[in-house]
Design brief:
Blueprint lengths: L2 H16 L19 H10 L9 E2 L3 H13 L5 H11 L6 E13 L14 E14 L2 E9 L19 E11 L3 E8 L2 E2 L16 E9 L3 E14 L5 E13 L5 E14 L14 H9 L4 E10 L6 E9 L12 E12 L3 E10 L14 E2 L2 E2 L7 E12 L3 E12 L28 E14 L2 E13 L9 E19 L2
Helix pairs in contact: 3-4
C-alpha cells in the first residue's frame, strides 16, 4: 500500500479513537449488490415511496437503508407492510455486534459470463458456497465474505486462475471507519456509480469487486466521494512493464429537494516507471487541469455529470453523461468519444414500478492512442465493458407476497464491431480519422424478452433471470439470425448467528 494511504488510514484511526462517540452513529456494513432483498428496496425507491439513501451510488449502508425506510414507515406509504419487513431485516443491532453466516447451494447458467447480452463460456450447473463474517465496534466495521464458485473458471471476465477445478474469490473484504460527516474504507466490494439497472460509466462491478481506498465526506446536500485503486500492470511493445492506476471522484450537490447534480471525473495514470502521483489522488483537485492543461503528461481523463430530477411527485428522471479524453485544442486530430445513459422511473398503478433506460457508448470511447490508457483492468472494463453500442431497456417490477420481486423486461441492444481493447485507429495521410462515431461494420441486434425473480424467504435466497433472445446479424455476420434462451439462477440455503461483545 502506498505510504500516503497508510498516513490517511492512521490519521483516521487516531481520529476515531479521539473523537467523542456523539459525533457519529455506530458503523454499519454495506448492503451488498447481490443481496436478493435489494431489488425490493430498489423497487420502493423507483416508485418514489422511499428516498434514495445514496442517489446513483451503490452500495449504501444498512443503517442508511433503515433510516429512509423508517421515514417512509412514519409517512404511511402505500407499501407499508413491505417497508416494515425490510426495515426489520436490515435493522442493525446496537452495540459491539458480531455475526457469522454461511450459505450453500447451486448456480445454473446458459453461459458462464454473468452478462447475458454478450454470452460467452460454457453452460452448466455448479456448486456455490460462502461465509459472511461481520463485526462492528463503535465507529469501526469489518466485513469478510469468501466464496467458493467453480463457475469462475469458465467466465472470460474473471481474471483469476483458470486451471483449477475449484475456484473462489473474496466477494467482500473491507474495513471502514464511519462518522457523522465522513466515511473511510479500505478493501474490496462491488460498487456501481450510475443509474441502477446498468453498469455505471466511471465505475461498476462488471469485472467483479474492486479493491481500493474510498473516502466519503459531507452531508446529503453536498458530498464528496472518491476511490483510488491499483490496476494490473501491462507490457508495452518494447517488453517494458507499464504500471497503471485509477482514481475517480464525484461531487454530489443537491440544490433542491427535487434536483441532484454531480460532476465527476475518472483518471487513468499509466506509464513505465510511473507511480500514483499525489496530484491524481487528491479528491479536491480537478485532474483535467493537473493533467491535460497543467503538466500535460497525457494521462487519460474522463469528465462526467450525473443528474437526477423529480419533476413530478413520484416520477424521477436520470442521466449520466461522459466525455472521454476531451481535446480543447487540435480537435481535428482526435474524434470526440462519449458515453451516456438517460432514464426515468416511477410508480405504475397501485403495486407496479416501472423503469426505462437508454444508454449509448461511442465507437472509440473507453480506449486511447496508448493501450495503457484504456479504461480497462486486465482487459475488462472498469465501468462499461463494451464500446460501439446502444441499448434500450424497459422494465416493470411487482412484489409478490412481500418476499419476492418479479421483473419482466424488454431490451434491444445494437452492437457494432468496435471493441474496447481494439487498437486505436490510425489517421489517414491528411491526419483525419474516418472511423464512424457509432457503429463500426456490421451491427448485431439483440432483442430480449425476459423475466427476473429475486428474494429471500426463511433460509432460502433466490436470484434468477431467464429470457428469449432473437439475434440479427449474429457474430456480425450479415443476414445470420439466431434464436436462443439465456438465463442464470442462484439458489442457496443459509444459517446465521449474531452476538454482542461485552
Amino acid at each position: 500500500m502506498p505510504s500516503p494511504i497508510r498516513v490517511v488510514l492512521l490519521a483516521t484511526a487516531l481520529a476515531g479513537v479521539a473523537l467523542p462517540q456523539r459525533l457519529g452513529a455506530q458503523a454499519s456494513p454495506y448492503i451488498r449488490l447481490d443481496d436478493p432483498r435489494l431489488p425490493l428496496l430498489e423497487y420502493l425507491i423507483a416508485r418514489g415511496e422511499v428516498e434514495d439513501p445514496s442517489p446513483m451510488l451503490r452500495p449504501f449502508r444498512r443503517r442508511d437503508a433503515v433510516r429512509v425506510l423508517a421515514a417512509a414507515d412514519s409517512a404511511g406509504a402505500s407499501s407499508l407492510s413491505l417497508i416494515q419487513r425490510l426495515r426489520r431485516e436490515f435493522g442493525d443491532s446496537v452495540g459491539n455486534v458480531w455475526s457469522l453466516a454461511g450459505r450453500g447451494g447451486l448456480q445454473g447458467y446458459t453461459h458462464a459470463r454473468r452478462e447475458l447480452l454478450h454470452p460467452s463460456g460454457a453452460s452448466g450447473i455448479s456448486p456455490y458456497a460462502e461465509i459472511l463474517g461481520e463485526l462492528t465496534l463503535g465507529n469501526l466495521v469489518l466485513v469478510t465474505r469468501p466464496t467458493v464458485e467453480p463457475r469462475l473458471t469458465h467466465d472470460q471476465d474473471w481474471i483469476g486462475r483458470r486451471e483449477l477445478k475449484v475456484s473462489g474469490r473474496m466477494a467482500d473484504a473491507y474495513i471502514g471507519l464511519q462518522f457523522k460527516y465522513a466515511d473511510l474504507s479500505y478493501g474490496q466490494l462491488d460498487r456501481n456509480w450510475g443509474p441502477v439497472g446498468l453498469p455505471g460509466i466511471p465505475l461498476s462491478n462488471y469485472g467483479y469487486e474492486r479493491q481500493g481506498l474510498t473516502v466519503d465526506i459531507g452531508t446529503p446536500t453536498i458530498r464528496l466521494s472518491s476511490l483510488a485503486t491499483d490496476l494490473q500492470d501491462q507490457t508495452d511493445s518494447l517488453g517494458q512493464t507499464v504500471h497503471r492506476y485509477y482514481f475517480v471522484h464525484r461531487l454530489h450537490l443537491r440544490p433542491s429537494r427535487r434536483l441532484i447534480l454531480a460532476p465527476w471525473e475518472g483518471i487513468i495514470v499509466a506509464g513505465v516507471d510511473r507511480n500514483f502521483e499525489t496530484r491524481y489522488r487528491n479528491p479536491l483537485s480537478l485532474g483535467y487541469l493537473a493533467n491535460t492543461i497543467g503538466f500535460g503528461d497525457r494521462s487519460n481523463v474522463m469528465l462526467g455529470l450525473d443528474v437526477q430530477w423529480r419533476p413530478f411527485r413520484h416520477t424521477t428522471l436520470l442521466a449520466q453523461l461522459a466525455l472521454d479524453d476531451f481535446w480543447y485544442d487540435d480537435r481535428e486530430q482526435n474524434r470526440d468519444r462519449w458515453a451516456l445513459t438517460v432514464g426515468a422511473q416511477g410508480p405504475l398503478g397501485r403495486n407496479l414500478g416501472w423503469q426505462a433506460l437508454y444508454t449509448q457508448v461511442s465507437s472509440l470511447a473507453l480506449r486511447a492512442f496508448n493501450p495503457g490508457d484504456n479504461f480497462t483492468d486486465a482487459g475488462i472494463g472498469i465501468g462499461r465493458n463494451f464500446s460501439d453500442q446502444d441499448q434500450l431497456t424497459l422494465r416493470v417490477s411487482l412484489p409478490v407476497r412481500g418476499t419476492w420481486l418479479l421483473a419482466p423486461e424488454l431490451t434491444v441492444l445494437r452492437q457494432g464491431e468496435g471493441q474496447i481493447n481494439d487498437p486505436y485507429p490510425v489517421p489517414d495521410a491528411n491526419g483525419v480519422r474516418s472511423t464512424p462515431a457509432l457503429f463500426i461494420g456490421v451491427v448485431e441486434r439483440t432483442y430480449r424478452a425476459a423475466l427476473g425473480l429475486a428474494g429471500r424467504t426463511g433460509p432460502v435466497d433466490l436470484s434468477a433471470t431467464a429470457g428469449f433472445h432473437h439475434v440479427v446479424n449474429s457474430e456480425h455476420e450479415e443476414g445470420h439470425s439466431v434464436d436462443r434462451f439465456e438465463g442464470r439462477i442462484q439458489a442457496t440455503l443459509g444459517i446465521s448467528r449474531t452476538g454482542v461483545l461485552r
